[in-house]
Amino acid sequence: MYNYAIRFEQDSTPGLAVFCRDLPELNSYGDDREHAISEAVDAIEVTLSIYVDQRRPIPESSEPLPGEQVIYLPAVTVAKILLWNTMMERGMRKADLRRLLGVHQSQGDRLVDFMHTSKMEQIEAALAALGKRLAVTVQAA
């Protein structure tokens, strides 16, 4: 659902440029393939922040194409995506979420801030206030 596929392109300088079909705003770089993959999670989270800043829903991932590398996001990041997209479906702003939860601005804003680690319980509570329940599954690696 939110496991984004990235592709690598050899740059004219040493290193690899990273791109994502589903998140065209994503732009990242790594010294080599391993470094590029480790940088991709941060790049995806920065890109998700752009969607929040622009009040746009975050797109689901599409099936990877041959040669692409799938990036599996942390569970807390996926939960934040689900919270944000639920808010977008309902036309809610961050201020609406804060009022609904009865929390201060910084507490509410962090729930949809991909650069801040939130407690999963807080995100679950926010989803519950919106009539949603988070379900977690385990898959083979």
Q: Please give the number of β-strands.
A: 4
Q: What is the architecture of the largest domain at the second tier of CATH? A: 2-Layer Sandwich
Integer average pLDDT? 94
* CATH third-tier fold name of the largest domain: Double Stranded RNA Binding Domain
> What is the total domain count?
2
Largest sheet: 4 strands, antiparallel
Structural class comes to alpha+beta
Protein name: Transcriptional regulator
Organism: Pseudomonas cremoricolorata
Folded structure, characterized:
It comes from Pseudomonas cremoricolorata. This is Transcriptional regulator. With 141 residues, the chain is of the alpha+beta class. It folds into 2 domains: 4-71, Double Stranded RNA Binding Domain (2-Layer Sandwich); 75-129. It has helices at residues 33-53, 75-89, 94-101, 105-110, 120-129; strands spanning 4-10, 16-20, 28-30, 69-71. Helix 2 (75-89) packs parallel to helix 5 (120-129). The protein is elongated and about 50 Å long. The protein starts with a strand and ends in a 12-residue tail after the last helix.
Lay out the secondary structure.
Elements: E1 4-10, E2 16-20, E3 28-30, H1 33-53, E4 69-71, H2 75-89, H3 94-101, H4 105-110, H5 120-129
Helix pairs in contact: 2-5
Organism: Pseudomonas cremoricolorata
Protein name: Transcriptional regulator
InterPro entries: TTHA1013/TTHA0281-like
